Amino acid sequence: MNGTTKHLDGKSFILLLFLAFFLKNCQKNEERNFSNLLELKNYTIKKTKINDSIIGIVGENKNYKIKGLFNTRSNEKIGWWKIVDTVNDNDFDIEYVSPKFPKENQMKIYKKGILQKDLSMYYDYTLINHKFLLKIYYPKSSEIIEKVSFDYITGDTIKKMRINEGKVDCIFKNACYECEIPLSNNENAISGIVAIFTYKKNKKDVTLGNTNIYVKSIK
């Protein structure tokens, strides 16, 4: 390739989703503030103790409300957080996983209560008849998706043991990337990492992207 090569990580991509949404909806006053929406210091906060290490947080400022759980021991957001744009009737659902994945894992953008799939990044799955069907939704952009793969581990939650592991490529189908994994009778849980590799050709360089999504089935 000619020119230089730049890299875009997953956390930077999440912030770009915010910016793309604001640009699409012409919220000019918010374009430069999109990266501040997740900062708790920008809200008036109320805390509720859940247990010794988890507190519930509800925050509010002039334009937004925020709500979620916070781990005081690890000093991090956990689970799904919701941000409500009280001025323009937009919602953002953002998932945080664990310190092993110190970034926003999934993001769903809603406009007037309707999920904007073309601007959201998330996964969905079904686990029926010993088949795990994973669906990855990735926002439309000027990037070209080169490959989407799922590196997984299966297990038995009753016996609490790992059973199998593998890696599959996902194919584009029904407006998302899908992959199907057959499971045996004693495999009732699956988790792993989806890797999304992208690139974008610019005039003088190429931007490479690598976004990971942590996937875990709920039994």
What does this structure look like?
With 219 residues, the protein is mainly beta. Residues 1-8 and 26-32 have low confidence and may be disordered. 7% of the residues lie in helices and 57% in strands. It has a 7-stranded antiparallel beta sheet with strand order 2-3-4-5-6-7-8, covered by helices on one side. A 5-stranded mixed beta sheet has the order 1-16-15-11-12. It has a 4-stranded antiparallel beta sheet with strand order 9-10-14-13, with no helix packed on it. The radius of gyration is 19 Å and the shape is globular. It has one helix spanning 10-24, and strands spanning 4-9, 44-49, 54-60, 64-71, 76-85, 90-96, 104-111, 114-115, 122-128, 131-137, 144-156, 161-169, 171-173, 176-182, 189-201, 205-216. It is built from 1 helix and 16 strands. A hairpin with a 2-residue loop joins strand 7 and strand 8.
Major sheet: order of its strands? 2-3-4-5-6-7-8
Mean pLDDT: 84
Which runs of at least 5 residues are low in confidence (pLDDT < 50)? 1-8, 26-32
SSE-based structural type: mainly beta
Strand content: over 45%
Order of SSEs? EHEEEEEEEEEEEEEEE
Number of strands: 16
Ends: how far apart?
A: 46 Å
Largest sheet: 7 strands, antiparallel
Put simply, the count of helices is: 1
